[in-house]
Amino acid sequence: MEYNTVKKRVSRNTIRMIYLYPSLYEAMVASLSSHIIYYMINEKFEDVYLERTYLSSKQGPYYSLETKTTLRNFEFIVTSLHYELDIANLVWMLHSSGIDPRNRFRSQPIIAGGPAVMSNPHPYSKIIDVAVIGEAEVTLPAIVEKWVENRFDKKRFLEEVSSLEYVYVPSIDEPDEKIYRRYVEDLDSAFYPIKQFRSVNVEHPFGEGFMVETSRGCRYWCRFCMESRLFKPYRSRSFGKLREIIDQGLLTNNLNKVIIYSLSFPSSNVEKLIVRFIAEHGYSVSIPSIRLEYVEDDFLDLIKKAGQKSLTIAPEHLCPTIQRLIAKYMDLDLVLNSIYRIIDHGFDVKMYLMYGFKNESLDDIRVMLDSIRKIASRAREKGAKVKISLNLLIPKPHTVFQWIGMIDLVRAREILRYIKRELPGYVDTKLYEINYAWVQSAISLSDQSISDVLIQWGLEGGGLGSWRRVLKKTGFSTKYVFEGYRFGEKLPWSNIALNEDLEKILLAEYEVWRRIIRC
Ligand code: SF4
């Protein structure tokens, strides 16, 4: 059973659309953009019924959650690719529902957004029909409107939407046609999903609560971080608006926990005030990863009062040399003291760390491991748990790593073996599979030529075995992942205009790296 499912009467005039989420139900529930899209389109368009489907363990065909209608009976498909790997699920879900995953053989248009598409839509050019480069609130309604005006005429619809400056239509636009990102300028006046769907059988990854996006974007420019570049500039909701959203949301959904969404938290006084508001009203809170410079006693007390037991931090590396290189530098003593303070306040700690920079030495890794040992022993002393999520750097478009590339997989495995050997056994460590990091980079850094590979890969059901088989069969090489693109060479995603300062910033970042690794 699900709460807050949108119910509409279906008649001959109803425009049947589906939101296809190419991952599991719990991921869809945790994705705030899924809620925004679902409720916004159903509210704005009386004659449109947007239903949902998601990846389940069933073999297919896929049905809508709302009316159990098969996927192939919908005239219009909206999807979001949060991770590059989800493309295999999308292809599989279409195919197993009797829909051709190749765009030119299909009558239904597929409208795709989300970080993977926004950063570089070209890898998906033979699968999706419309790539949306922007935030849903200010892009999707106009696209849906165009379909309402041109129903069942896919060709005409595509011609019409291709005139929108934030839309890329692979079958019409040249790959170098400039596409301009569109974003919400004032979050307070943007649509917000006060009702949020949730299932009684599937728990939200952050516990049963109401999701509140306090801010969007990030003030910082960490050099590896594509996400922040896709959602610049930093925008915050006002305190008054957040109070209103929280009051209405908790009441409407009959909940007493607030799950805060923010890329970098807290980045303003408003975000600190809202935690105070939540704690003082007796609600519980779940906060995203916390910036270490904001680890102050009174703030930790408030979070504790609001029931949070574990805090997530993302220093990314614990060696100052690497921290400087990735522009996420904080004095190591300050980092350690902030983490000790978190532990001393009785929190468990979850830490996101990264390795695999081309100039990273084993000494740099040793410095990181020494710090982990210190943190772990402090936690042990205080009876707290430490979890580490350790990820190989995945070079992404619009970051300096587009020119630097990824370390080779043999070296990555060596480093990982070394880290595993040296880490204290009582530290709970989650390691991201190196081969999936390779696949993710191969997709995100590619041009259109990977599209056929992705279709075949999806038809085989995804996974590493079939990835290797398809690469072998097609002769597709992923050497660009490890070599990076040549500086000055045209990049596949250079038609995607994200931010007017980005080019200057990237050039400056590249100069720094060039001096360091002499590439
Ligand atoms: S890693 Fe975090 S702090 Fe750094 S730019 Fe990305 S979102 Fe912002």
Largest sheet: 6 strands, mixed
What's the CATH H-level homologous superfamily of the domain at 2-180? Answer: Response regulator
Q: Structural class of the helices, strands and pairings? A: alpha/beta
Uncertain segments: none
Strand percentage: 15-25%
What is the number of helical segments per DSSP (H or I, 4+ residues)? 20
Question: Which radius of gyration do the C-alpha atoms yield?
Answer: 23 Å
Q: For the largest beta sheet, what order do the strands appear in spatially? A: 3-2-4-5-6-7
CATH third-tier fold name of the domain at 2-180 = Rossmann fold
List bound small molecules.
Answer: iron/sulfur cluster
Description:
The chain has 519 residues and is an alpha/beta fold. The chain has a domain at 2-180: Response regulator (Rossmann fold, 3-Layer(aba) Sandwich). It has 20 helices and 19 strands. The strands form six sheets. Strands 3-2-4-5-6-7 form a six-stranded mixed β-sheet. A four-stranded parallel β-sheet has the order 15-16-17-18, covered by helices on one side. α5 (140-149) runs antiparallel to α6, α9 packs across α10 (297-305) and α12 (332-344) runs parallel beside α13 (362-382). The radius of gyration is 23 Å and the shape is globular.
Question: How do you describe this structure in short?
Answer:
The chain is α/β, with parallel strands linked by helices and 519 residues long. 39% of the residues lie in helices and 15% in strands. It has a domain at 2-180: Rossmann fold, CATH 3.40.50.2300.
